[in-house]
Amino acid sequence: MRIPRFYQPGDLQPGHTFPLSDEVVQHVVRALRMRVGDVLELFNGDGHNYRACLTQVEKRRAHVMIESVSITAVESPLLVHIGQSVSRGERMDYAVQKATETGMAELTPLLSERCEVKLDAQRQAKRQQHWQQVVVSACEQSGRAVVPVINGFQSLDDWCAGVDAELKFVLHHHSAAPLGAYETPQSVALLIGPEGGLTEAEVERAMGHGFQPLALGPRVMRTETAPVAAQAVMHYLWGDLG
């Protein structure tokens, strides 16, 4: 049986006993009904997995002791920073979740010309926090021990001008060259348009900042599907898939 795995922020050290966060207690006590002596795995984002044993279980709290620590080997050598135009509802959640599972390192939500989502600063902050929790849940499921970062909202132009990566791609119907023609990079920036697509002017401005047009094939993909498909190909060619 698979050992339950949870994100537990803070310093984790073998031999230390401490209370679990409220979020983890919800799963451990109420959902899984775990008992004293049961084993679970924790991670805090530092790239390590921590094997822990429950030492105290009550209705609304639980304590564990860290028994051992191990380094996880599930992080790709390829760092992918996704600039994702914000989409509505569950589409953005799907993109964030699956991009995490397929190995992204960082994601910045972008406001582009055809973006239909209009949020004030307070709601933007709430969405950013929500998507960061989606990332954490995806890490718990996929075995990742390094938690990708969800940055604050940016305009498409600001992100294109400031993002730093060895190769930069904008998904477009025309590719300058197939991915296999490029030398293996250590980092990639990937620009994804909204549901209505990027305008030609936006693509031109991105190319002015060093982005190469990239087509993944003859079929048109949804905005939430595109980053997953693109990452799968890139991690197959230059990362750790396959």
Descriptive account of the structure:
By secondary structure, the chain is α/β, with parallel strands linked by helices. It folds into two domains: 67 residues, Ribosomal Protein L25, Chain P (Beta Barrel), CATH 2.40.240; 160 residues, SPOUT methyltransferase, trefoil knot domain (Alpha/beta knot, 3-Layer(aba) Sandwich). The strands form two sheets. Strands 6, 7, 8, 9, 10, 11 and 12 form a seven-stranded parallel beta sheet that branches. The chain has a five-stranded mixed beta sheet with strand order 1-3-4-5-2. A hairpin with a 4-residue loop joins strand 3 and strand 4. The radius of gyration is 20 Å and the shape is elongated. The relative contact order is 0.16.
Kindly list the characteristics that best describe this protein.
elongated; 5-stranded mixed sheet; alpha/beta; Ribosomal Protein L25, Chain P; 2 domains; 242 residues; Alpha/beta knot
> Mind describing the biggest β-sheet?
7 strands, parallel
The share of residues in extended strands comes to: 25-35%
The CA-CA distance between the termini, in Å, is 26 Å
CATH class annotation of the largest domain = Alpha Beta
The level of helicity is: 25-40%
CATH superfamily of the largest domain: SPOUT methyltransferase, trefoil knot domain
Element pattern in H and E: EEHEEEEHEHEEHEEHEH
Low-confidence stretches: none
| Domains (count) | 2
CATH topology of the largest domain, anyone? Alpha/beta knot
Shape: elongated
CATH level-two architecture of the largest domain: 3-Layer(aba) Sandwich
User: What structural class do you assign from the helix and strand content?
Assistant: alpha/beta
Our Rg estimate from Cα atoms comes to 20 Å
- What is the number of helices? 6
How many strand elements? 12
- Report the mean per-residue pLDDT as an integer: 93
